[in-house]
Design goal:
With 295 residues, this protein is mainly α. The protein has a single domain, classed as Farnesyl Diphosphate Synthase, CATH 1.10.600. Helix content is 72%, strand content 1%. The protein contains 15 helices and 2 strands. The chain has a two-stranded antiparallel ribbon. β1 and β2 form a beta hairpin. The model has no long low-confidence stretch (mean pLDDT 93).
Length: 295
């Protein structure tokens, strides 16, 4: 796990460096927007999704430059989603990663525009020839990210999550919500390397299975932390789902069954990577990290 943490820190530095080179800047009347964008995306996030892009790319010997640009684009999407999720009309959060949320640091309108800017910038980055020389690959990356982030992916999952307040939902319904809200972007992060590396069907299928399992595991761990951790430890509010009247994996399964399911998914995710032998060792460690993380 120490090896993984060192690699995560190294990847975070490289991704942040790439993101900084891609962000808009200026001193004009729109300066506040640029400041809010920087504040939102360059705070101390784990950069897990970018790391998945980088590691899945290494499986297929994709160039580091291409991997870092795609990794940066997915972090832009992720950051935009957090800005909007935190808004008063959504989850109404004051803290994110231990810092004031963007709308609290600036104002609601600026936060919305910062999120809009990051969303559109991500596709600008993917469309650039510097990301990949093959226009077909660039189109595939854009198409898959649009599906993962849009109404049939993350945004659709967020809408379902809002509609789920004070409703009795089955474990199947909760799973579908979280596979869209959280899992779709994680799946794209894993699949992007296969897209750039022109992977074979067997390899794509293995990564898809891995992404499915770590996506669900990530959310189950989130749900467990929400009821077992503190605001200081997580850097954000706790017991949010209970206060909002939302069902989640823990409220339906109970803590012990949720923990067992979490462990099962982590082990199953690792098995999906057998086709890659030792090249996927860091991805295996990611699965363990997701199961065991404390924030």
């Amino acid at each position: 796990m120490n090896d993984l943490k060192a690699n995560l820190r190294s990847a975070q530095k490289e991704v942040d460096k790439t993101i900084k080179s891609l962000l808009p800047f200026g001193k004009g009347i729109e300066k506040k927007l640029f400041e809010a964008i920087n504040y939102s995306i360059l705070s101390s996030g784990k950069r897990l999704r970018p790391f998945l892009v980088i590691q899945s790319s290494k499986l297929f010997d994709v160039s580091e430059k291409s991997a870092l640009r795609v990794a940066s684009s997915i972090e832009m999407i992720h950051s935009y989603s957090l800005i909007h999720d935190d808004l008063p009309s959504m989850d109404n959060d004051d803290l994110r990663r231990g810092l004031l949320t963007t709308h609290k640091k600036y104002n609601e309108a600026t936060a919305i525009l910062a999120g809009d800017s990051l969303l559109t910038l991500s596709f600008q980055v993917l469309s650039d020839t510097l990301t990949h020389s093959d226009p077909r690959i660039r189109c595939d990356l854009i198409n898959e990210l649009a599906k993962a982030a849009g109404a049939y992916g993350m945004v659709g999952g967020q809408m379902m999550d809002l509609e789920a307040e004070n409703k009795k939902l089955s474990i199947g319904a909760i799973t579908r919500i979280q596979m869209l809200k959280t899992g779709a972007l994680i799946a794209y992060a894993c699949n992007s390397g296969a897209i750039m590396g022109r992977a074979e069907k067997k390899e794509k299928f293995s990564l898809q299975g891995y992404a499915h399992d770590i996506g669900l595991a990530y959310q189950i761990r989130d749900d467990l932390l929400d009821v077992t951790s503190t605001e200081k430890e997580l850097g954000k509010k706790v017991n949010k789902d209970k206060k909002a009247g939302k069902k989640n994996f823990v409220s339906i399964l109970g803590k012990e069954r949720a923990k067992k399911q979490l462990e099962f998914l982590g082990n199953q995710a690792i098995k999906h990577l057998e086709v890659f032998d030792d090249k996927a060792n860091l991805l295996r460690e990611v699965a363990r990290f997701i199961v065991e993380r404390d924030r």
